[in-house]
Design brief:
About 60% of the residues lie in helices and about 0% in strands. It is flat. The two termini are about 15 Å apart.
C-alpha cells in the first residue's frame, strides 16, 4: 500500500508510450498489456517499487513479531504490556495520516486506502510491540531451535504474497 512510488511504472508513464495513462500499471484499452477481458493480470517486476518492497519487508518483521505478540496477549489476556494504549492509538493515527498524505488518489479512494493501511499496519504494530516486549523478557522463545528464523521466513512469504495480491487486485484494477 502507499503511493510514494517513483519507479518505472509510476513516473512518466503514459507519456513514454508505455500504455499506462496514470502510471498505475493498468494498460489502456488497445495496448498490448492486457486482454481487455477485465480478468486479473499478474503484476510486472516494474510494479514492485522500492516503496512496495520496503513496506513488504517492514510488514514481514511486524508480522513475525506480531506472532509472538499474539502469544503474549493470549497468555496475559491484556494489550498494553509493552506500551500504554494511547501510544498505540497515536501510532495508528500517524500511519493513517502518512498514508493519506502520501496517496496519489483523491477522495474516497485515498480515504479507503489510508483506513485499510492504518488498520493493517496499526494492528501489526500493536502486536509487534507486545511481541517485542515478550521476546525482550524471554528471548528463548525465538532462539530455541532457531524457531525465530522459521517464523520470520513464514512471515516474509505471507507478506510478499499479500503485496502481490494487492498489486494484482487493487493496482491492476481487478
Amino acid at each position: 500500500m502507499g503511493d510514494a512510488d517513483t519507479g518505472p511504472s509510476r513516473a512518466g508513464a503514459g507519456s513514454d508510450g508505455s500504455g499506462t495513462p496514470d502510471g498505475g500499471g493498468t494498460p489502456m484499452a488497445g495496448s498490448d498489456g492486457g486482454s481487455g477481458e477485465g480478468g486479473l493480470t499478474p503484476p510486472d517486476p516494474a510494479d514492485a517499487s522500492g516503496y512496495g518492497v520496503g513496506i513488504t519487508l517492514v510488514g514481514a518483521v511486524l508480522l513475525a513479531l506480531g506472532y509472538y505478540g499474539v502469544l503474549a496477549v493470549g497468555e496475559t489476556g491484556e494489550i498494553g504490556q509493552a506500551l500504554p494504549e494511547p501510544f498505540y492509538i497515536l501510532a495508528v493515527a500517524v500511519l493513517f495520516v502518512v498514508e493519506l498524505l502520501n496517496s496519489r488518489h483523491l477522495g474516497v479512494v485515498a480515504l479507503a486506502r489510508a483506513i485499510a493501511f492504518a488498520a493493517v499496519y496499526g494492528g501489526l504494530f500493536v502486536l509487534a510491540a507486545e511481541g517485542g516486549a515478550s521476546l525482550w523478557e524471554n528471548p528463548d522463545l525465538v532462539l530455541a531451535d532457531y524457531v525465530g528464523v522459521t517464523v520470520f521466513a513464514v512471515a516474509l512469504v505471507v507478506s510478499a504474497l499479500a503485496y502481490v495480491a494487492y498489486l494484482t487486485v487493487v493496482e491492476r484494477g481487478g
